[in-house]
Structures are given as C-alpha cells and as structure tokens.
Amino acid sequence: MENKKTAVAIITARGGSKRIPRKNVRPFLGKPIILYSIQAALSSGIFDEVMVSTDDTEIAELAKKAGATVPFLRSEATANDHASTADVLLEVLDSYKKQGRNFDYACCIYPTAPFVSGEKLSKAMTMIKEAEADSLLPVVRFSFPPQRSVVLRDGGLAFRWPEHMNSRSQDLEPFYHDAGQFYCLRVSSFLEQKRMVMDKTIPFELPELEVQDIDNPEDWEIAEVKYRILYGE
Questions:
Q1: Which of the four, 64, 116, 190, 223, has the lowest number of CB atoms within 10 Å?
Q2: pLDDT reading at 145 higher than 70
C-alpha cells in the first residue's frame, strides 16, 4: 500500500510593503485580504498543515485566529525586498526539517490572492501528483498577442516583430504569463533545483477574469470589481 503523500500550504506574508502599506492585512471587500488565502487552503482539505510565513506579529496573530499555524517567524534575511519566494520556501522547509517534519509536496500561496479557492488548490495538487511533475504554475493567456506588440524607437513606434504585423491573432501561438497566485511543488525536486519553475512544470490555466496583479491602489480596486462580478459580493 502506497504511503500517503504529505503536503503543506505555505502562505508568504511579510509585514513590509511600500506601494500599498500593510498590504497583506488591508481589508479587501470587508476582511483582511490574507484571510482569503488562508480560508482557501483550509477549505481544500488537502493539506496536512496550513502555515503562514511572516515576520510580523499582527499578521501572525491574525493567521492563527483564522486557523493557520505560525510555527516560527521569518528571519530578517527573508523579510527584505531582495529575498525571493524560493528563498522563503527554502527557509520554511529547513525550519520544519529541524523540527523533524518533512513534506512530500508544498503549495506556496500568495497572501494577496483573493481569487484562489479550495477547489482550485485541490485540483492543482491532484494534477501535479498525477503528472508526476516537479511543479505546477497557474497561468493566464495574454489578451493581446505579444507577437504584434510595438515598441518606442527614436520617438516613434515600430513593430517588435515586423514579420507578424499582418498576422491574424488566431494564427499566432498563444502566450501566457504567471498568474501570481500560487505554486505547487514537489519538495524533493524543489530542494534540488531551488527554483519555482522547474524542469518539469505543468500549467494550470486560469481565465483572465480570475486573475489580477495587486501592486498599487488601482490594481486593488480592479480586483474588487472583478471579485464582485464573479461572486456578487
């Protein structure tokens, strides 16, 4: 009988944020935005632990009240603007290892991802296991073909790829970008490769309405509008 694969959800939520102060606990349609990620992870029913990696005591207390764990605080080295998501996850997994705990899979969930749901997380984790992939990346298709983009040159506009200036959109290969919501990882592969997009990465395509980067106040307002359209709140 195959041993049950263990999985941890890691929600990365440091205290500092320059463009949107206190971004990770700012109310999104009435409740701190990080609660959407915590509740999605808990409702999925697929994680052995749902934890929040933070350096901030307010975030830590909020996370624990919402049902997540905060077994240790993030170090100064991974709480600055220069630390990557991979750096944070490596520290979390190493801290668990020192406690005698190891996981087969990890799912990194961003704290400003209100469109993440338990259903999506469950489906994504099933996909990465069935595909025996190293990682799974949620992606969204560019709404306009990048092959027909223009660039500024000497005060004027020029096609970046002139060979596609008359190409029909439907004839061009679709391009995608990271949806910026979560990543599913096989821990053994991640510890070896130490990057989010690994040798065998599979896609989890999302519709544009369910994707919104939240980097400034305008993005925040757009995300709330999209959420209301989707869920009527």
A1: 64
A2: yes
